[in-house]
């Protein structure tokens, strides 16, 4: 299971988080103010238009009510009005009785005019509503962008902190070992018979340091997308056998077995340097998570269409649900963070990318916690 770092309340009030919170409040306030302002303007405009129409109707009704000429005999008014019997309507906002001379008649606003005003008002409301929705979407996009930028910045900061913590720890061990060996040799306290053993110890520590630097540089190149493989035809069985034998010589305390099946002649397109880095990382991972007496095996299998390399161990294994964590940067196979176990969390992170650049693929399998792991590299045969 993964271990989740508890949220530090102090980080919530840090500069980026505070800036994001203030920006979020300002954007929400801006959107709310804009919607309320324009909505109220549309409502006010509709009331003003109705009031203007009513005032015009009232003025014309007063004027017609004082004329001696029958208003029905000619069009004696301007605007969307009509003369109707007063009994057909009630005096109010849209109709007025022509008093004092024509109390049996009334001036009424025509229904189409009122309907047109209502339609215009409805269109304006829909327009404001649509613009409000669009503004909210834009605000949402801005919030999402701010959140992603903030999350990316915080993730990068955590990764840098974790990286420096891990690499500084991993650098100290081989450097301290090499320094101790050199001080011992400089003191002339070692007999000639022991010099080869001390030389092997120094070679082991420098090899560990070299792999660390190679992984760091490769992870940086992968992150900047400036990486490319130099493919050529290699004999995978012979290359793998030679690699295992040489590694066993360099690391006498980390012996791995080698077997092959299906023949010895299988050529694939690969980058030899990258393949060595891949195999180093897989074997380092196998020994790192194996018990005191590890059993690590490398097996090459040649099939009709594929060639595969399997690195297996009898170590801690993993659950199927934790498989994705195996290949995350600065994570452990059991989901632990960089500070919970030895190492720097880059080995398995870069392996899939290196293999992908060579047209190969990597799969991981385990029978469960405590039952070992199997990592399989698969190439398509030429």
Describe what this molecule looks like in 3D.
53% of the residues lie in helices and 15% in strands. The protein is built from seven helices and ten strands. It has helices at residues 9-12, 15-65, 111-186, 195-223, 236-250, 272-288, 347-357, and strands at 81-85, 95-98, 102-109, 232-235, 256-261, 267-270, 296-302, 306-313, 361-365, 373-380. The strands form three sheets. A five-stranded mixed β-sheet has the order 5-7-8-10-9. Strand 7 (296-302) and strand 8 form a beta hairpin. It is rod-shaped. The model is unreliable at 1-9 and 335-341 (pLDDT under 50).
In short:
This protein has 7 helices and 10 strands.
Measured distance between first and last alpha carbons: 41 Å
Shape: rod-shaped
**How many E strands?**
10
SS-based class: alpha+beta
The succession of helices and strands, N to C, reads HHEEEHHEHEEHEEHEE
Helix content: 40-55%
Largest β sheet strand count, sense and barrel closure: 5 strands, mixed
The proportion of residues in beta strands is: 15-25%
Quick check: average pLDDT? 80
Spatial ordering of strands, largest sheet: 5-7-8-10-9
Report Rg: 41 Å
């Amino acid at each position: 299971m993964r271990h989740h770092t508890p949220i530090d309340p102090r980080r919530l009030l840090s500069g980026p988080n505070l800036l994001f919170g203030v920006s979020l409040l300002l954007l929400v306030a801006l959107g709310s103010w804009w919607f309320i302002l324009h909505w109220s303007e549309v409502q006010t405009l509709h009331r003003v238009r109705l009031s203007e129409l009513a005032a015009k109707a009232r003025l014309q009704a007063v004027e017609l009510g004082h004329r001696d000429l029958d208003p029905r005999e000619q069009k004696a008014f301007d605007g969307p009005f009509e003369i109707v019997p007063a009994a057909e309507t009630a005096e109010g906002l849209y109709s007025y009785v022509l008093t004092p001379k024509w109390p049996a008649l009334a001036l009424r606003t025509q229904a189409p005019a009122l309907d047109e005003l209502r339609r215009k008002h409805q269109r304006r409301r829909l327009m404001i509503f649509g613009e409000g929705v669009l503004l909210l979407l834009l605000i949402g996009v801005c919030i999402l962008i701010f959140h992603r930028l903030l999350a990316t910045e915080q993730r990068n900061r955590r990764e840098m902190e974790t990286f420096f913590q891990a690499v500084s720890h991993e650098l100290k061990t081989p450097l301290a070992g090499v320094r101790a060996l050199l001080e011992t040799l400089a003191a002339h306290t070692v007999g000639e018979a022991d010099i080869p053993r001390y030389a092997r110890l120094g070679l082991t520590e420098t090899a560990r340091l070299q792999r660390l630097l190679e992984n760091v540089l490769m992870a940086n190149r992968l992150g900047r997308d400036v990486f490319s493989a130099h493919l050529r035809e290699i004999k995978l069985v012979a290359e793998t056998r030679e690699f295992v034998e040489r590694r066993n010589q360099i690391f006498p305390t980390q012996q791995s077995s080698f077997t092959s099946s299906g023949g010895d002649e299988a050529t694939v397109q690969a980058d030899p340097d990258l393949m060595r880095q891949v195999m180093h990382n897989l074997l380092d991972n196998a020994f790192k998570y194996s018990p005191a007496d590890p059993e690590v095996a490398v097996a090459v299998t040649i099939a009709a269409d594929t060639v595969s390399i399997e690195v297996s161990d009898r170590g801690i294994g993993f659950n199927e649900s934790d498989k994705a964590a195996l290949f995350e940067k600065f994570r452990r196979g059991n989901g632990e963070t960089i500070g919970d176990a030895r190492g720097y969390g880059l080995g398995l992170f870069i392996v899939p990318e290196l293999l992908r650049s060579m047209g190969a693929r990597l799969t991981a399998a385990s029978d469960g916690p405590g039952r070992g792991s199997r990592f399989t590299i698969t190439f398509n045969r030429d």
